[in-house]
Amino acid sequence: LYTVYEADTGLRAIELYEKHQPDLVIMDTRMPGLDGIEATRKIMHAHPDARIIGVTGYADKNAAFQEAGALAVIQKPFSLAELSEYVAKYLQ
User: Fold this and answer.
1) What's the sign of the alpha-carbon dihedral 19, 78, 42, 11?
2) How many other C-beta atoms lie within 10 A of the C-beta of residue 35?
3) What is residue 77's predicted lDDT score, i.e. its pLDDT?
4) Residue 24 in contact with residue 53, Cβ under 8 Å?
5) pTM to 2 decimals?
6) What does the alpha-carbon distance between residue 73 and residue 55 come to, in Å, rounded to a whole number?
7) 32, 40, 59, 78: most buried by Cβ count inside 10 Å?
8) Which tens digits make up the pLDDT trace of 25-68?
């Protein structure tokens, strides 16, 4: 069973991370204002042990997510089974 927090902007994602410090973050690339890559970078700067999985429909964003500190990047579209595998892998 997981507790899920949802952010509609990169800034809100950072705020929620600061407040709850979840075990895993699944971060989309495109969000209003601060994008997911920059939000990942900011979270990782403040919390180097954070576990973040990037999600994108843009193949050219994979490297940027990983440079920002994401453990992995999932390409859209993806199945629930694929997402579940990533979650299980990074929550071990």
Assistant:
1) negative
2) 18
3) 96
4) yes
5) 0.94
6) 6
7) 40
8) 999 999 999 999 999 999 999 999 999 999 999 989 999 999 99
Are 57 and 29 within 8 A, CB to CB?
yes
Q: How far is CA 28 from CA 4, 60, 71, 75, in A?
A: 15, 14, 14, 10
Question: Length of the chain, please?
Answer: 92
Alpha helix segments (H runs only) across the chain: 10-20, 36-46, 62-68, 80-90
Is residue 51 classed as helix, strand or coil in its secondary structure?
coil
- 59-83 pLDDT per residue, tens: 899 999 999 999 999 999 999 999 9
Q: Residue 43 — φ and ψ, nearest 5°?
A: -65, -45
Point out which residues pair with 32 in neighbouring strands.
none
